[in-house]
Amino acid sequence: MAGVSLVCVPLVGKSVEQMLSEMATATAGGADVAEIRLDHLASFEPRRDLDLLLRNRPLPVLVTYRPNWEGGEYEGDDGWRFEALLLAMELGAEYVDIELKVAQEFVDFLSGKRPDGTKLIVSSHNYQSTPSIEDLSILVARIQAVGADIVKIATTAVDITDVARMFKVMVHCQGQQVPMIGLVMGDRGLMSRILCPKFGGYLTFAALSTGKESAPGQPSLSDLLDIYNIKQIKADTKVYGVVGKPVAHSKGPIIHGTAFRSVGYNAVYLPLLVDDFESFLSTYSSPDFAGFSVTMPHKEAALACSDEVDPIVKYIGAVNTLIKRPSDGKLIGYNTDYTGSISAIETTLQVFSGKVPGASLADRIFVVIGAGGAGKALAYGAREKGARVVIANRTYERARELANFVGGQAISLADLENFHPEEGMILANTTSVGMYPNIHDTPLSKPFRQRMGSKAQQSHSPKVELNSVFSLKRKQALKSYALVFDAIYNPTLTRLLREAEELGVTIVTGVEMFVRQAMGQFEIFTGLPAPEKLMRETLLNFH
Ligand code: NAP
């Protein structure tokens, strides 16, 4: 049973025609089963509609007629519902779903007339939480007792650790040869929908496309098949993922999933929405969960949870990559933000060595704007390469602390515009200033609004003139740099980079850093060389 979970697409059309068209799309998209939700049909005539739907079905179907007391749209009595479900069975539906609350009545109703070919799924939905393992096991036993062919339990994740209980029950059912669908709804339950082949789940649901979800947290069919490669997930598939909050926007699953697949590495990479890093790690402590990319706000917690760290990590104070050492299960922390950003800058210096005098960072002034996680990684990396580091940060105290730490100089953000002691410097923005949606901001000077204050804006000051004065100062400042880097990757070309480029200054984008830090992670995860071209193209295509 493990390793062959079916992928079922719930149809959301309101008419038979729409449902037939959705079935065709689901078949072409690689679905194994389509769920016909009779309660979604605007005007349902059982004999006419079921005959049309079942006679013309291009793939196996699961017929559900969900009442409103279990989250569906049917408001009538159970007698009518039972008749319609029996008719679906007689017309050859492969699966029929009935809710546990009325399952015994339905089974009694069927007695003596139950067609052989249809599997009966008895389902239970909990839209609030996920019960304990004991309560889930009792639920399984109750569902089995009414004569279900397949047990279906859908609960809700309040925390990502809730999913572990469902996995335990699924594995137990698998050992007992009890076919089970175990799903945990919500963003925090996403992994239950992807890892079901690994833990013996009979079937998982996928939306026909994004926006057509029938339950919270449902991935799309194409994500399930193409990004998570669900058909290749087996019991021994290793689980990796990006741990953060939020994580839905992360490109990690696309880039790592594609890279794993390209080298035939038996692993899946998931977005993991985690609230409490420590409890997540202790819950998923088995070797199945082999390694993680760590993003905001967990990079410092990841350092605290590491058993051992790459020596450089101690100085940077943040871990963005964590693996479980296979020999002893110890957690080893790394930081590939540091290698990713510095190598992106160094490589560009080498490529443009004709234009940028000197191809190395040694003895160059390296100005880092920001003193957070990325700022520390760049400041430390630049120091390691022999650069003279200058830190400018909104909170001056933090700039001073970091500057002391790396043996550099601290300046205020306001001083940055007038800071051009020599030519050929490097400027690296590691703040989020200029990031989507505030794409008109630049860290090199405050936005016009902040400089002028609301009173000045109302005065007769010629805004345009003042703006151009600021632009001129910014231009002068930017011209002293040989290279400008921005850690932001959304947008790829920030205002800071655009203005630098317009002045002929060499630029390096956050996308380049992202690709390189992901390559570093891939190598740590797999021990294999990263497929650089593929990873870069994948990121750019999905950007
Ligand atoms: P962080 O630890 O929270 O640090 C944020 C830094 O930005 C702090 O120095 C903060 O200054 C400064 N800052 C925030 N808002 C500001 C504002 N309105 N004006 C001036 N300064 C401001 O964040 P992080 O993890 O270092 O990430 C920072 C940026 O780097 C993000 O845009 C992130 O997406 C990007 N990043 C990119 C990659 C990549 O692969 N390309 C990797 C990691 C991070 P204070 O000290 O005054 O608060």
Give structural notes.
The protein has 20 helices and 20 strands. It is an alpha/beta fold and 543 residues long. It has three domains: 231 residues, Aldolase class I (TIM Barrel, Alpha-Beta Barrel); 101 residues, 3-Layer(aba) Sandwich (Rossmann fold), CATH 3.40.50; 170 residues, Rossmann fold (3-Layer(aba) Sandwich). The strands form three sheets. It has an eight-stranded parallel β-sheet. A six-stranded mixed β-sheet has the order 10-9-11-13-14-12, with helices on both faces. α9 runs antiparallel to α20, α13 packs across α14 and α13 packs across α19. The protein is elongated and about 90 Å long. The structure holds NADP nicotinamide-adenine-dinucleotide phosphate (NAP). NADP nicotinamide-adenine-dinucleotide phosphate (NAP) binds next to α14 and α19.
Helical amount:
40-55%
Strand order of the largest sheet: 7-6-5-4-3-2-1-8
Largest sheet: 8 strands, parallel
Mean pLDDT: 93
CATH superfamily of the largest domain: Aldolase class I
Q: How many β strands by DSSP? A: 20
CATH topology of the largest domain: TIM Barrel
* CATH class descriptor name of the largest domain: Alpha Beta
- The number of distinct helices, counting runs of at least 4 residues, comes to 20
- Total tally of structural domains: 3
Low-pLDDT windows of residues: 447-460
User: What ligand molecules are bound, each kind once?
Assistant: NADP nicotinamide-adenine-dinucleotide phosphate
- Spatial separation of the terminal alpha carbons: 37 Å
Label the structural class: alpha/beta
Give me the Rg, rounded. Answer: 28 Å
Strand percent estimate = 15-25%
Overall, the morphology is elongated
CATH A-level architecture of the largest domain? Alpha-Beta Barrel
